[in-house]
Amino acid sequence: MNEPRCAAHIAWDDALTGYDFGRGHPMSPVRLDLTIRLARAMGVLDRPDVRVVAPKMADDAALTSVHTAEYVAAVRAAGADPATVDLEHGLGTDDDPCFTGMHEASAGIVGGTVEAARAVWDGRALHGVNVAGGLHHAMADHAAGFCVYNDVAVGIRALLDAGAERVAYVDVDVHHGDGVQAAFYDDPRVLTVSLHESPRTLFPGTGTPNETGAPSAEGSAVNVALPPGTNDVGWLRAFHAVVPPLLRSWKPQILVTQHGCDGHLDDPLAHLALTVDGQRASYVALHELAHELCDGRWVATGGGGYAVLDVVPRAWTHLLAIAAEAPIAPETDIPQSWRDHVGAVYGRGAQLRMTDGAAPEATDWNDGYDPAEWLDQAVLATRNAVFPLHGLDPGH
C-alpha cells in the first residue's frame, strides 16, 4: 500500500557529509551537520507529515542525462586517487580538490535531489528538500565552484523525463546559477531565474541581463545582477519586481529552487548584505508562489553558504520548517542543547535566536523608482531584456 502524501520529503543521511573537500575548504560539511542537528532540536524533522529519506546514489544513467560519460569516469577515477590533477575536467583545483570517494559522495547528493523531485512530481510529497544539494556550478564536462555533479540539473532532467512540460527554477544564491542555466539554455520547457551579485564583482563572472536563452528558447533564462552591498530591502524589491510576475505569466507545473545563503552580510566569500530574516522572507515568498501556481509542488535545495556556524544552520532550518508547513517564528529561541553542542565542539558561543533582528518588507517596484540607483538600473535591465518576451510590460 502506498504511503499517504506527506508535507515534506527531506533527503538526508549522515553519509552526505562525506562531500568534503578537506580542512580549510570553505565548503565544510559542518554546515550540513549543524543544520540537521538544529532542525531536529526544533522538532522540524520529527513531525508526522515529514519523511526523512536516506538517498540512494544516482546511477550513471541519471548522471549522464546532464554530464558526459567521460566526465563521470574522470570523477570516479579522481575519487579513487585523490592526488589526481585533471584540469580538463576541473578536478584537483583549489576550488574542487579531489577526495576519496568523491564520485560516491557526489552521486549521493544527486540521488537525494532526484528522489525528492520524483516524490513531489508523482504526488508522494507536497514539497521536497535536499539541503546538501544545490550544486549549481557543475557543468556537463567539468567541476566548478565547489560543485562536482549538478544535482539540480539532473533533478530537473528527471522531471522532464517524467513528463513535466513547464519547470521553473529560481536560484537565490549570491553566485550566478550558471551550470543550471547552461544545461537548459536551449530548452523552452525550463525557465531559469537567478538573482545574484553582479558578475563585475563576483565569481563566476556570468549572469548578465542579456543572457536570455538560446534562439530556440528565448526568454527562458533570466538574470538579475545585483550591486555589492544590496541589503534585505533592496534584494526583496528586486525579487518581487521580477520573479512573481514572470512565474505568474509562465505558469510552471513545478517549482525548483536553490537557496544558497551566501548573500548574508556575514558570509566571507561575497558582498551582499542580507540577514537571515531577509533570506527567510524569500523562502516564504517562493513557498507561496508554489502553492499559488503549482498546486504546492516545490523542490528546494541548499547551495552556497560559508558562515557555517552563525548563518547556514538557522537559514536552512527556516527553509526546512517552511517546507514542512510549520514555519518557525523569527524571534524563536534556539534550543540550549544545540548551543551547547556548538560550544563543546567548536569552542565558541552560538546565536541565541532564529532572527538577526531585522523585519524586512518588500517595497513595490512602482514606488520610489530611481534611475540613478544601481539596483534599480539592474532590475530594469532584466525587465527590459525578458519581460517583453513573456508579453509583460517592463515599465519605466
Written account of the structure:
Strand 1, helix 1 and strand 2 form a beta-alpha-beta unit. Helices cover 35% and strands 11% of the residues.
CATH topology: Arginase, Chain A
The percent of residues in helical segments reads: 25-40%
Number of strands: 8
What assembly state would you assign to the polypeptide chains in this entry? single chain
- What amount of the residues lies in strands? 5-15%
N-to-C series of helices and strands: EHEHHHEHEHEEHEHEHHH
Uncertain stretches: none
Can you identify the CATH superfamily?
A: Histone deacetylase domain
Shape: globular
CATH class bucket: Alpha Beta
- Which strand order does the major sheet show? 2-1-3-8-7-4-5-6
Q: What is the average of the pLDDT values?
A: 97
Provide a count of the helices.
11
Our Rg estimate from Cα atoms comes to 20 Å
Distance between the termini: 56 Å
How many domains make up the coordinates? 1
Q: What structural class do you assign from the helix and strand content?
A: alpha/beta
CATH architecture: 3-Layer(aba) Sandwich
GO molecular function, one term: histone deacetylase activity
Region (Disordered): 201-220
Pfam family, one: Hist_deacetyl
Family: Belongs to the histone deacetylase family.
